[in-house]
TrEMBL record:
InterPro entries: DUF1365. This is DUF1365 domain-containing protein. It comes from Quercus suber (Cork oak). It comes from the Eukaryota.
């Protein structure tokens, strides 16, 4: 049933994107003064990045790939729809400065954002009275799975953080392990790195995003720049995989930015890593955001599905969504993450992997430890 629904969705989105692509091409070929360019009005609040995403799985089979991506970095005082507002992000991260959002904009009716990152800055008390100095304090990860359309948000330390896996993001990875995440402050370059630490497979997966800022003068149409980008990402994701607990790091967005996520699994160990690295694109090089992001969501979708198929071809075990096998998986992820915060060594010790059985869950809730809040919700259609 899920396969039939997925195929029907792919066909529906294909027809919609094809029609909108023709309209976009028609608009692009006509004289520019016939159409208003909204991107020019918002160029100051958006920076464009172009780079690559690289994934490597080391166990139980070796599999790696990379694909080109395009991202937009928004100042959340001009927030795009279906994302947290600046005030919401400040409240979640307990910060008082600017908030930037790294995400892939919709393209020709399609959205594909496996990971969006909010960069939350703090204004130092000493600097508030004089020249304000903003420092990247926290990041908020917004993870969306496909084709289930589920979304979870949580705070992580950009320098390096270990987070219990809280979302089923791949049918080839279970819910065990930790995500090791890192990200830099976006500038001319940015990166995001995620590695997976698994109790059996060890450090078996890595994903990296690297990107450079694109001068706005080089991009005349944002719609064309991001054309089919979400679709491409989706195809690559379905050809791919992720698992365990997430160890996350991110830098403060500037001319460069990065986000790193590694997965730590109780059985597989640190077996997966994902890294995003990007450089800022000068706004003078981009005159139309629609052309800049043309088909970017579509490309992401294509990469997701393509690499999922390749993993299936390599006989990697298919893992059903935990909703059908373990309805309490979200509660277990929260408890496991709380244990990681209280006893960091346990996150990387496969011999001390947590067991969640009945009343034993209450044993882990140590009030003296900081509790990370996970928020689950359905992603707005179309999310895959």
């Amino acid at each position: 049933m899920e396969a039939f629904y997925l195929l029907a969705t792919i066909l529906s989105n294909f027809l919609k994107s094809f029609t909108l692509s023709l309209l976009l091409l028609f608009r692009t070929l006509l004289p520019r003064h016939w159409f208003s360019r909204s991107s020019s009005n918002s160029s100051e609040s958006v920076s464009l990045y172009e780079g690559t995403v690289w994934h490597e799985r080391r166990r139980p089979v070796r599999h790696s790939f990379q694909y080109p991506v395009r991202y937009a970095l928004y100042n959340l005082d001009h927030a795009p729809p279906d994302h947290l507002s600046a005030d919401q992000a400040r409240q979640i991260a307990s910060t008082n400065g600017q908030v930037l959002l790294l995400t892939i904009p919709p393209s020709v009716g399609y959205v594909q954002n496996p990971l969006s990152v909010y960069y939350c800055y703090d204004v130092e008390a000493e600097a508030q009275a004089s020249a304000p100095t903003q420092l990247l304090k926290k990041c908020i990860a917004e993870v969306t799975n496909t084709p289930w359309g589920e979304r979870v948000t949580f705070v992580f330390n950009p320098n390096s953080d270990l987070v219990a896996k809280s979302l089923h993001v791949s049918p080839f990875m279970d819910m065990l392990g930790n995500w090791n995440m890192r990200a830099n402050a976006p500038g001319d370059n940015l990166y995001v790195t995620i590695s997976v630490q698994h109790p059996k497979l060890g450090d078996y997966f890595t994903a990296v995003l690297k990107a450079k800022r694109v001068p706005s003068s080089l991009v005349s149409d944002h719609a064309m720049f991001f054309w089919l980008m979400p679709h491409k990402v989706a195809v690559w994701i379905y050809w791919h995989d992720m698992l365990g607990n997430w160890n996350m790091r991110a830098n403060a967005p500037g001319d460069n930015l990065y986000v790193t996520i590694s997965v730590q699994h109780p059985k597989l160990g640190d077996y997966f890593t994902a890294v995003l690295k990007a450089k800022r694109v000068p706004s003078s090089l981009v005159s139309d955001h629609a052309m800049f992001f043309w088909l970017m969501p579509h490309k992401v979708a294509v990469w997701i599905y393509w690499h999922a198929l390749k993993l299936w071809w390599k006989n990697v075990s298919y893992i059903q969504h935990p909703t059908y096998t373990n309805p309490a998986y979200r509660e277990e992820a929260s408890i496991r993450d709380h244990k990681i915060q209280c006893c960091p060594m346990i996150g990387s010790d496969k011999d001390k992997h947590l067991q969640f059985e009945g009343s034993d869950q209450g044993y882990f809730l140590d009030r003296s430890c900081e509790i990370r809040q996970f928020t689950w919700r359905k992603a707005k259609w179309p999310w895959y």
